[in-house]
Target: Rubrerythrin
Amino acid sequence: MKNFADLTEREVLAVAISSEEEDSRIYMTFAEDLAERYPDSAKVFEEMAEEERGHRHRLLELYEKRFGPHLPPIRREDVKGFLRRRPIWLTKNLPLDTIRKEVETMELEAERFYARASERAEDVGVRRLLGDLAEEEKHHEQLAVKLTGEILKPDVRAEEDKTRRRMFVLQYVQPGLAGLMDGSVSTLAPLFAAAFATHQNWQTFLVGLAASIGAGISMGFAEALSDDGSMTGRGSPWLRGFTCGVMTTLGGIGHTLPYLVPDSWPNAFWFATAIACIIVFFELWAIAFIRARYMDTPFLQAVFQIVLGGAIVLAVGILIGAA
Model:
């Protein structure tokens, strides 16, 4: 990689041209990705892509006048100190606010590049153009705000807020809730069966830990492989799988941890079991609340489904362990 200070004017212009071309493609990728979910916000990024194409055209004209038609094969990735752009495949289905922050970072980096390059330029025409572009990049954030204000009217913003909430539910709440339910409920039977069969805390903890991690791995892969998100808009399958797997494991670990109470304590088994039952109670009510809050399920119905179901699974585990 080359140091920025070692770049010639020709190389600076070549880097600028390739950067503007790449940024334009990134903005168009954002626009295409947002077109279905947020069509009005997509127009903002289309406008910004057009601005970047205009910059590239001006840079190319100056370059051809100074150095001819051939561009040296150098990009910003070849220069030390440049922030690297995310690969395009990692920008798919990003939340709208995350995309806007990404754009702010891109514009800030571009402005700093042009400002530094302008200070080092010896040719008057190159210095003038780079300075102008630095000022324009500085105002690009204001352009985005202006375009947002012109395109995103209050009713459009309200509609996009609804879409954002729906996407949040699809991409995070649903897989997380599915994992939390499975981890909290499915591990009850093996945990309490082991507890009442052995009356030993450490062995019970190991069973609960194995059941929680095993269920987390299973649910994570099942969620990731169930839907690639291309048609449903549920986002990255691996992100959903990770969310589901982690929440499944946490759901089981919560009522497993009390069995870390040493067996040497007086009434250690009954103390740990009592704490575990209290944690189960709060877990099931928390799941019922989340279902009512985000899944539009009536609260009493959610309580009936989750709390009653969990109580039955808990009872089954105790009966099998005590048999």
Summary: DSSP finds eleven helices and no strands in the chain. Residues 255 and 277 are 7 Å apart (CA to CA).
